[in-house]
C-alpha cells in the first residue's frame, strides 16, 4: 500500500511538471510572437513611457493633477478613483444586501414580496443598463446650478453633482484624518484579538475616538459651497459619474448579496432560534445576537466572490466617463502613447493584485470566524 501511494504521488508530480512545462511553452510562444511582431514594426517594449507628459486633464481626482504630469501619475490617480468607487460600493452593497436579505425572511407579506421584487428586477437586468439608467434617466434630469436643490446643512444637489461642505484643517490635520480611516479599518480585526480569555472588544474603538479628537482639534473652519458665476466654489463636489457608478454597482451586487444572506440565515440550525426564544429574547435580539453571528460563517466565502466581481465591474465606469483606471489608463493613455501591450499588462496586473489582496483579507477573516473542531 505504501509503495502504491509513493508511485501515485510521483506520478502526480510528474503530470504537474508536464502541465507547467506546457503552460510555460504556450506563454513563451505568444511572448516570442509578440516580440517578433513588435520588432518588425520597430516598436520597443518597456515602461519608460510612464515618465512622459500626459497632456490631458482629469475631470475628477483625489489628488492634485496638472496637464504637465506624467502617465505614471495618471495611472496612480485613476487607480485611486477605482479604489474609491470599489470601497464605497462594497460598503453600500453589503449594507443594502443585508437589509434586503433580512426583509426576504420577514413574516410580513408586503415587506417580503417588496424585497423579492427588487431582487428579481435587479438580478435580471444588465448591470451596464442600470448604471446608464442612474446616470442618464436620474442624475442628468436634475436642475442646473442656479436652481440647485438644497438638502440642508449646506448640501446642494444639481446636474453637476452633490456639493458638500468641507473642513478646513491645519497643515497636520490630514494626518489625523488618515489615522481615523486606518483605525476604522482595523476595528473589525482588533475586536476579536485578545490575550487568553480576555478580548479587546469595545477597547478597539479607543484609537478611533482619539483620532476623532485629533481631527476636532485641527479644524480651523468649514468651507461651504457658494455660487460664483455659473458654478459653485468651495466645499467638496461628488460628480454625478461617481454617484451613478456607485449606485449601479452597489444595487446590482446587493441583489446577489441579499440571497447569500437569506440562504446563510436559513442555514443556521433551527434549534438556535428556539433556544433564543426560550431565553425570552425578542426577534430583533435573536437575529442580531444569535442568528447573524452564526450566519456570517456561512456567508463569508460567497461574499468574497461578490466583492471581487464588484471590483472588476468598476471598469464599467468607462461607459459614463468616470475616470477610473480602464477609462483613463486603458483608454486615453493607450490612445495617446500607443503602448497597447504595456498598458493592458499593467491594468491586468493591478486588478490581479487588488483582487488577490481582497481574497487574502477575506480568507483570513473566514479563518477567524470559522468553527474550530476540538
- How are the strands of the biggest sheet laid out side by side? 1-2-3-10
Number of strands: 10
Q: Structural class given helices, strands, pairing?
A: alpha+beta
Per DSSP, the total helix count is 11
Return the string of H and E elements. Answer: HHHHEEEEHEEHEEEEHHHHH
How much is the radius of gyration in Å?
A: 26 Å
What is the strand content?
5-15%
The largest sheet, given as strand count, sense and whether it forms a barrel, is: 4 strands, antiparallel
Poorly predicted segments: none
Helical residue percent?
55-70%
Oligomer: single chain
- What's the overall average pLDDT, rounded? 84
Distance between the termini: 30 Å
Label the overall shape. Answer: globular
Structural account:
The protein is α+β, with helices and mostly antiparallel strands and 374 residues long. 64% of the residues lie in helices and 9% in strands. It contains eleven helices and ten strands. Helix 10 packs antiparallel against helix 11. The chain is globular and about 80 Å long.
Amino acid at each position: 500500500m505504501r509503495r502504491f501511494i509513493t508511485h501515485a504521488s510521483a506520478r502526480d508530480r510528474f503530470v504537474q511538471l508536464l502541465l507547467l512545462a506546457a503552460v510555460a511553452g504556450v506563454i513563451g510562444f505568444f511572448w516570442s510572437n509578440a516580440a517578433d511582431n513588435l520588432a518588425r514594426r520597430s516598436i520597443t517594449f518597456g515602461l519608460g513611457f510612464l515618465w512622459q507628459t500626459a497632456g490631458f486633464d482629469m475631470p475628477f481626482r483625489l489628488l492634485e493633477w496638472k496637464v504637465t504630469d506624467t502617465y505614471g501619475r495618471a495611472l496612480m490617480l485613476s487607480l485611486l478613483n477605482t479604489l474609491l468607487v470599489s470601497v464605497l460600493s462594497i460598503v453600500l452593497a453589503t449594507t443594502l444586501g443585508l437589509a434586503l436579505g433580512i426583509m426576504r425572511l420577514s413574516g410580513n407579506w408586503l415587506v417580503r414580496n417588496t424585497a423579492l421584487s427588487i431582487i428579481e428586477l435587479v438580478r435580471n437586468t444588465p448591470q451596464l443598463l442600470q448604471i446608464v439608467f442612474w446616470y442618464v434617466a436620474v442624475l442628468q434630469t436634475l436642475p442646473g446650478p442656479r436652481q440647485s436643490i438644497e438638502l440642508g446643512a449646506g448640501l446642494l444637489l444639481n446636474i453637476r453633482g452633490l456639493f458638500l461642505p468641507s473642513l478646513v484643517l491645519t497643515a497636520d490635520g490630514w494626518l489625523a484624518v488618515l489615522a481615523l480611516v486606518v483605525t476604522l479599518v482595523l476595528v473589525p480585526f482588533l475586536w476579536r484579538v485578545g490575550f487568553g480569555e480576555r478580548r479587546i472588544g469595545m477597547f478597539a474603538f479607543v484609537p478611533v475616538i482619539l483620532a476623532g479628537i485629533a481631527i476636532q482639534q485641527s479644524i480651523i473652519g468649514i468651507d461651504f459651497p457658494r455660487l460664483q458665476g455659473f458654478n459653485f466654489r468651495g466645499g467638496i463636489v461628488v460628480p454625478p459619474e461617481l454617484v451613478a457608478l456607485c449606485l449601479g454597482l452597489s444595487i446590482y451586487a446587493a441583489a446577489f448579496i441579499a440571497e447569500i444572506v437569506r440562504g446563510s440565515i436559513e442555514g443556521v440550525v433551527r434549534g438556535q432560534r428556539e433556544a433564543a426564544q426560550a431565553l425570552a429574547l425578542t426577534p430583533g435580539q435573536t437575529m442580531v445576537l444569535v442568528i447573524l453571528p452564526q450566519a456570517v460563517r456561512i456567508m463569508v466565502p460567497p461574499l468574497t466572490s461578490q466583492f471581487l466581481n464588484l471590483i472588476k465591474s468598476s471598469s464599467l465606469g468607462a461607459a459614463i466617463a468616470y475616470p477610473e483606471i480602464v477609462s483613463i489608463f486603458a483608454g486615453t493613455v493607450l490612445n495617446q502613447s500607443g503602448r497597447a501591450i504595456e498598458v493592458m499588462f499593467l491594468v491586468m496586473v493591478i486588478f490581479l493584485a487588488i483582487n488577490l489582496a481582497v481574497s487574502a483579507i477575506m480568507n483570513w477573516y473566514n479563518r477567524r470566524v470559522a468553527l474550530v473542531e476540538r
